[in-house]
Amino acid sequence: MKLRMFGATDKGLVRALNQDAYSCDASLGIVILSDGMGGHAAGEVASHMVVEGLTESLAKISESAIDDVPVRIDEALKTVNTKLILRSQEDSSCRGMGATVNILCFTHGFVTIGHVGDSRTYLVRAFKSSDNKPRFGSWQLTIDHNLGTFLDRGILNLSGSASEGQLSARDRSKLTRGMGVMPDPKPDIYSKRLTDGDVFLTCSDGLHGFVSDRDVLRALVAGSIAEAPQRLIDIAKAAGAPDNVTVVISIVSDLNEPFREFSGPIFDTRPYMLRLPNGEIQGPIVASEVIDLWIKRTLPSNTEMASGLGEWVLLRNKDLLVKAYPEFKQEIFLNHLHYETSEEISEQAPKTLETLESSSHNKPTHILIWVLLLILSVGMTLTILLLPELQSVLLPAY
Question: CATH fold of 3-134+145-252, please?
Fold first, then answer.
């Protein structure tokens, strides 16, 4: 498979400086994008330190075994993070600087993504649906590390008098992880097997923060793929986006224009992508294959799923699934897939249809045991409480 990359960046409509930085090299199979933050030029320093440091550390990552790639990325991120912290401490003009980062490493038929912050990477695929019409789908492969996302996913809970409804858009966008602002940035690292025709879009929040995923996809497939980064930047600026905007496109295809033969409407409900708890990404797969994987191959607890233009949803959460994907109300899904509400999610939850059925058959027995135990405990309690009175009555007669 041939790998090609195209990128562009712009300071946007308002910013005096461009604090975004990126690097893409198809010969090395590496994409690095960083969005800097900090007063004056500090953000620009941070983003360039991230890109330059990671480029140097990962230049020979293709020589590593596939199982070592995530480890190498994690080590490189932590090394660069330490350098940012030291620079911030030593240089007063760089105090408080930080950055986001997305890394894509294409090696051994896989792409491994390292991610900190709210820059994003999407997978874009062209395919033909069951009615043989051309369709397009996009999947967000990274999770934004910001307050809004963590609240929505239940990772954080507001305490005190504050409530989620009182948060402004600015508050929700505040980062919960970043390079150079904490000793351990806790990067997310995902891997996915590559398929001919895969297109990856990596961008800063100057794009996705102001242009919808649907409009991004429409613009991406609307013309020359090589011109897509600049086309997307122009759309962001036309939408009034004030922030820096950076876009990198990575194409895994021998075709010069992988979307040329596809000109139909966007299809936003199938196929699906699955993200396993270990970060591995499977798909795209059709809905019937989700059932097959669940029943026959035992998908692990806390597997997430996303449709063509949808957010990641926990596969075990019935309420969110039915809300996000109306087709999951169909009988075929309800008969074969076991769902749990968000309050019932447990690492010990049954993982197969067989164990679920066997556990449901034992439910009356469990209830009877609990009733007997309750009666026994109440009897013992009453005996203890009434023992002195019983003695006062029985002893004289004895």
Answer: Phosphatase 2c; domain 1 (3.60.40)
